[in-house]
Every structure is written in structure tokens, then in C-alpha cells.
Amino acid sequence: MAKQNQSTGKTLVGHGGEPHQTVASDGVRLTTNQGLVIADDQNTLTVGERGPQLLEDHIMREKITHFDHERIPERVVHARGYAAHGYFQAYKSHAGLTKAGFLQDPSVQTPVFCRFSTVAGRAGSFDTARDVRGFSVKFYTNEGNYDLVGNNIPVFFIQDAIKFPDLVHSVKPEPDRDFPQAQSAHNTFWDFVSLNSEAMHMLMWIMSDRAIPRSFRMMEGFGVHTFRMINKKGESKFVKFHWRPKLGTFSLIWDEAVKIGGADPDFHRRDLWNAIEAKDFPEWELSVQAFSESQAAEFDFDALDPTKLIPEELVPLTPLGKMVLNRNVDNFFAETEQVAFCPSHVVPGIDFSNDPLLQGRLFSYLDTQLSRLGSPNFHQIPVNKPKCPFANFQRDGHMQTEVPTGRVANEPNSLDDGQPREDPKAGFTTFAAEESGKKLRIRPESFADYYTQARLFWKSMTEPEQRHIVGGFAFELGKCDVVKIRTRMLGHLKNVDKNLAEQVATALGMKGQGDSIKPRVSVGDPDPSKPLSQYAAAPKTLSGKKIGLLITAGVDDKLLTAIREAANAEGAMLSIVAPRAGEIETSGGKKVMPEHFLAGAPSVLFDCIIVAPTKADELEKEADAVDWIRNAFAHLKVIGYTETATRLFEKASVALDADDGIVDVSDGKLDKFVQQAKEYRIWDREPNVRSM
Ligand code: HDE
């Protein structure tokens, strides 16, 4: 039916007979890209009412042509990402370590743009794939943009950049069939890594819970390579960068990650967006492990080898400052898609090491931006543009948006006041490291220990974490149907830890099998390093976590208020789920709008749940409600219930006295529930719900 337009008072009928809005006399008018005001954006120019369309319709052609070219090549890796704006603030001056301006003054907030990503999947894949996560931060400092382009895992698969295309080809969908998407669980990947012993340490991480983070907000970040910091006196230290999330580091359970992939493929991006919209701003601490070259010479591994980490027992962390993400993007494409990170973007006081992987990256990122963004002027795109002045004589090129003035575009010159000019005092100078040697293609012998740190990681895990690593290997190798690849991998695992290899072999039904692979150097037996475990010292907190509450019409107001208050007090988010999408009335006649309806919100979306139907036996015929409990139990979650839910638990075959993680909240007292939920998972339950 046609309606009156509020602003113009005109009655309008758009395509399909629906009314549509036109502009008020003082409003913004729809125009073409040339500024021509458009009178009708709903109907193409035709000959007569029902006649053919005219090529003359430049307005329609401009719109469709622009649309046809809306896509740019997605990133070859890290295609699926999500980002936000924020700031970095140093805790104090770190002048002793570096002259980098953004690390000098604790009163300065440096703007940042931070992008998280998965690596293997396409831009349209799902968030919870087993994968490394990218953790890139662009600092818009007064001395130019500094990009710290890291991952959520502190080591990498390969030692030399020349192997990167092969690694990536192996993990991407297999080229003949174009599947599987966003998965490492397939033949080409396991074939490649099993032929590259240097990948063993990284494989331990990638098969661990680290590869299925609960949230970007609960994920660590690492610079991976050894970098340099240089102070005003010209003194240099090697550094490794670490980001630590304020909320603690938490992960999903594999079965949960798989199910979330279907229930909410945008789980991580939605989580970040929602937290920022709710002003629950995520925060990370930036630290470095700083060490001298002579210290590095004492390590029993090479600090330039990106498959090695430095145990914190050897070099503790020095906290530098904090990053807070407090603003979502205004436009995903303009900002998140067009942001261009390059590890070569450094500022005075930060420099590179000879890590061969880093050296290769210094070339690759600028090159990729040229083809991805299509122009050497990508630094002019707002998200990439330095927030400090910049000036040089680089000119022209595709999509030049600046209009440089003046007659001169060369340097030196004496015609245009000689500007701009180099500044040897403030400018970037490369650390004058001593280098000599023959030209060779050779891997240093000091990179040859492929197993000791893989073993260090394994030994540092808690029991549940070890179980998950075994499960990860078994799942992935189970999807690899070439037996020789499995036996090769089992051979590597035997070198890491006999017990690990045996458990994986048993899970695969290949007990006692595995190649004999002779390590190049003898494998060490390091002491565990506690910080490598997520759960050994995990904070007991509900902060930033999500409580799912299943209710029905007539829910008790007192109970609802008590749950709300408990969630608020703990800094947790409460999500109300009801059988239908519409408003429901509480016992006191208040209206509550559920955030989700049951069929659209399985319990995998929440960190802990409370099941509180109003009437006994209610919901017991709802498979989704039964699954809510069954899955939450299998995923080791803390479950609160009211007595009215008893039969539902019976249906789900979950005993109310199964363990301390099942808590009666009928009386509206939430203390015990909160205390249990702060544990995050009931790890002791795991052997009872999953034998492998
Ligand atoms: Fe990357 N990597 N990478 N990478 N990488 C890219 O650059 C590359 C490596 C990382 O949010 C690409 O703009 C090579 C390690 C992140 O936009 C490309 C090598 C680490 C991102 C590229 C590596 C990373 C990328 C693809 C081996 C952790 C996403 C699109 C030498 C320290 C950045 C792009 C964003 C993206 C190349 C290895 C992290 C092709 C050659 C190690 C977080 O340039």
C-alpha cells in the first residue's frame, strides 16, 4: 500500500508497489559519482512502460559497473579477518631500551588499528577453524606508521621464507578439487609438514587448543621473530614481542568449535563487535623479552630461528604498555579489507634481525599490497595513511589522490626551497650490525634441533591440554587417508614424546606403528615452562564471558534479577534464550525480549548456561532444549538449573549430581554457580564424556 512520505508529504510508490523515501528539502541527496542528483533510482530507462532498456541509461550503467568491480583480490593468506580501532599507551618511558617515540611518554595515547584473522580459509569461511590467528597492529605514531604483524602462536612452521608458497599451497584447498576449505586436515598439508621436520614445534601448537581460541579478546599475540630495539645511545638489544589479553587466554573445545562453525560462522567477529559496542573494551598488555646478543649466544637454540621460542624462565617479560580497542570500524571494506600491514613498516628505535623468515617477509608484504590494492598509492587510503606529516617526491601512479603542487619532483633540488629534505638526526638509520661471509644457500646447523622445543611444549601442558593435542593429531591424521603419511608423522611424534606418539597411534588404530626418523641432533629433555600452558595458571574469571539463560513465559522475576545482578557483578554478558523470538512476560507481568530464540542459539554459543523453564516438564519435547544440556555437559560447561528442569536433564541423560559443575539455582542464590563458572570448564568431567 502507498504511504505518505514523512519528509516531503508526497505519496510515492516504488518498485513492487512499496512506498520508498525521497529526500527532504534540507537532506542529503542521492547523486551519481559525478554529483548529478538522481531523480529515480528504482527504475531503469526503458522505451515505453513495458519496452526494452536503453543503453543510454548512464545512471544505471554507472551503478552496475561500479558494482561489477566491487571486489578486490582477497589476501592470499589471512583473508578472513576482523578489526577495530583503539590506542596504545606506554606504562612509562622505555628510553633505556628504545628511542621509539611511542614508547617514551606514558601520557601519550598512540592510535592503533588491529586486525585479527584466520590464515587458510577464504574471506567467506568460518571463524572457528583450527588455524593460527593473525594478530596485526598498526601504530599511527608521530614518527610514522609502525606495523607489528604477528600471530597468536609464538613460532612458525618453516625457517626460510622460500618455503612459504609451498606451505600455503599445501594447506589451501587441494588444487584439483578445491576442497577442503579452511582446514589443515587433508593429505597435502600433512604430506608437506611431515616432509619438513622443522614444522614439528609449530604442529604441536596448531594441534593444541591455541588454534581454536574462545575469542579474539582472549587470545595472546606474538611478534614471532626476534627484532631489535635501539636506544638513543645506539645500544641494541634483541626483543621478542608478546601481547597478553587482560581477560586471560581461553579456547574452545574442538567439538564445540565444529558446531559453532555452523551455528554462528561469525562467532569471533560478532564477539569483538558486540564487546566494543557494549563498551566492554578489550585490552592487551604489550611486553618484550629483551636480551643481548651475548645472552643469545648462550641459548641452546638459535634466537634467529623462527621455530623456537625463548622460555620465560630464561628471559622474563618486560611490560611496555597496553592496547585498548574501543571503536568498531565504520565500514568493513574501506578499513578492514583495505588495511595494508607490512613488517617493513618500522620506526626509529625498532629494527630487524637476520631471521630468514622475517627477511623474506620484508619483501613479500609490500609486493602483495601492490597487487591486492592495485596501486603504489595504497598509503593514501585513509586507514593506511600516516597520521603524522609525510612528504617525498614519489609521484603519480594509479589512483593518485593527492595533488602535489610545485615545479619540482626531484631530490636534491635548489629550486623549491629544497624541501622536503632528509634528516640524519631524526631519520631512520639501520643498526650497523657487523656482517661478513660467503654467498650460500644453506641452513645454519644451529637451526637443526627440530624436536626439543616441541617436547618442551608437550611437557608444559596440563593433562586436558595434552588430551586435546592427541585428539587434534588423531582427528587431522584420520582425515589424511594416505597411510605412509600417517606413519611418517607418527615417526616424528615418537621423536617428540613416546607417550604422545603412542596415544595418537592408538587413537588412529595404528598401535605400535610409526617410521623411524633419525633426528639431526640429539633431542633434549627440557623442564616444563608454565607460561606455555593456557590453563596451568588461567585466571578464575567470568569477565568477558557469556552466560546463556534458557527461560519460558512466566519466568520468576526474582530469579531473573538475581542472575542479571550476578552477571553484572562479574563483568559477564547475559544472553536470554526463549522458545520463540517474541517478547515474553515474567511472573510479575514485565516484558522481556529474548536475545535469541532456542532453535537459533545452541548452547555452544555460551560459556556457561542456566536452564530455568517456568513449569515442570516444559520444553521436554524440544530436541533443541535437550541438546542444550547434552552439549553443554559434553563441552564441560557449568550448568545451572531450576527444579522445573529436572525432566529435561533426564531426557539429556545428564545426572544432576554428575559433578560440581551442575548447580541448583532454584532458590535464586547464584554464588555457587558463579564460583564454578569462573573455573571455565569442569576438566575432570572430560574422561567421563569422551574416551578419545
Ligand atoms: Fe604473513 N603474509 N607471511 N606471516 N601474515 C600476509 O600479506 C608471508 C608470516 C601475517 O591482517 C600477506 O597483506 C610470507 C609469519 C599476518 O592484513 C603476505 C611469510 C607471520 C597477516 C604474507 C609469512 C605472519 C599476514 C597476505 C613467510 C607471524 C595478515 C596478505 C616468510 C609473525 C595481515 C597480506 C593483515 C599476511 C606473506 C609468514 C603474519 C602474502 C612470505 C611468520 C598477521 O604478504
From TrEMBL:
It comes from the Bacteria. Residues 1-10 have a biased composition (Polar residues). SUPFAM superfamilies: Class I glutamine amidotransferase-like, Heme-dependent catalase-like. Residues 1-26, 404-423, 511-530 are annotated as: Disordered. The keyword Oxidoreductase applies. Gene3D superfamilies: 1.20.1370.20, 3.40.50.880, Catalase core domain. Keywords: Heme, Hydrogen peroxide, Iron, Metal-binding, Oxidoreductase, Peroxidase. Decomposes hydrogen peroxide into water and oxygen; serves to protect cells from the toxic effects of hydrogen peroxide. Belongs to the catalase family. HPII subfamily. This is Catalase. The lineage of its organism: Bacteria, Pseudomonadati, Planctomycetota, Planctomycetia, Pirellulales. The gene is katE.
